């Protein structure tokens, strides 16, 4: 059975530097999903050894989750709901305080969305002049190392939303966030098209294994 006192510990951890580790959180989650499991702590440890972190487990593709020994449909659905709740929480905060106000919050949101995606995905955050999030949309999905995206499609959507600032984001499933030549050219094309329309490309962020690289900070544009 789950330890109900753990809920109050989680609340206290928000104001503490010693937050519960992944193993404790996953153990309690398993106890809720599978209350008859004889050793939720051992299963939690096994899953963390397999995936590396709770975040990686929550973001695992469906076909990978289906191959987890001992998993059930309830287990998979619950993990998906936890991941979706985390993403929506981050998104709500960004809508309230503004995307550019808290880089740590932005990193947490982008990591939750893309850090463990098995193929490349390009997303664009469309912001208003107050830096509030108008929309976060996937505009390209490709292979493990390439995703085509066209600047005209990005601009068309920006005009529809009346967005004035864009943040382009994509992941590198290899784990290395270093930009390829294609990444650099894509960024420059989007930035040039945006300038003609009076729209600002604030950054292009590449995510790899939880690491974020800013092409703006790298001097690409």
TrEMBL record:
Coiled-coil annotated residue ranges, if any: none
Residue ranges of domain MPN in the record: 99-221
Keywords: Hydrolase, Metal-binding, Metalloprotease, Protease, Zinc
Signal peptide segment: none
Alphabetical list of InterPro entries matching this protein: MPN, RadC_JAB, UPF0758, UPF0758_CS
Superkingdom: Bacteria
CDD domains: MPN_DUF2466 (cd08071)
GO biological process, one term: proteolysis
Molecular function (Gene Ontology), one example: metallopeptidase activity
Record has rRNA-binding as a keyword: no
Family membership: Belongs to the UPF0758 family.
Name this polypeptide is given: MPN domain-containing protein
């Amino acid at each position: 059975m789950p330890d109900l006192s753990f809920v109050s510990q989680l609340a206290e951890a928000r104001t503490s530097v010693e937050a519960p580790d992944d193993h404790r959180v996953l153990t309690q989650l398993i106890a809720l999903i599978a209350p008859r499991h004889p050793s939720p702590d051992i299963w939690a440890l096994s899953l963390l050894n397999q995936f590396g972190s709770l975040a990686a487990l929550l973001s695992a593709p469906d076909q990978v989750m289906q191959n987890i020994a001992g998993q059930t449909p309830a287990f998979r659905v619950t993990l998906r709901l936890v991941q979706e709740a985390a993403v929506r929480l981050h998104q709500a905060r960004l809508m309230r305080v503004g995307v550019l106000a808290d880089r740590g919050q932005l990193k947490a949101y982008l990591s939750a969305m893309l850090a463990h995606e098995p193929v490349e995905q390009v997303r664009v955050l469309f912001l208003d002049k107050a830096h509030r999030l108008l929309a976060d949309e996937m505009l390209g999905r490709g292979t493990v190392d390439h995703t085509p995206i066209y600047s005209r499609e990005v601009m068309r959507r920006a005009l529809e939303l009346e967005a004035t600032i864009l943040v382009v984001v994509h992941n590198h499933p290899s784990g290395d966030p270093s930009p390829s030549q294609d990444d650099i050219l894509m960024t420059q094309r989007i930035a040039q098209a945006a300038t003609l329309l009076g729209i600002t490309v604030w950054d292009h962020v590449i995510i790899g294994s939880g690491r974020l690289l800013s092409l703006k900070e790298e001097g690409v544009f």
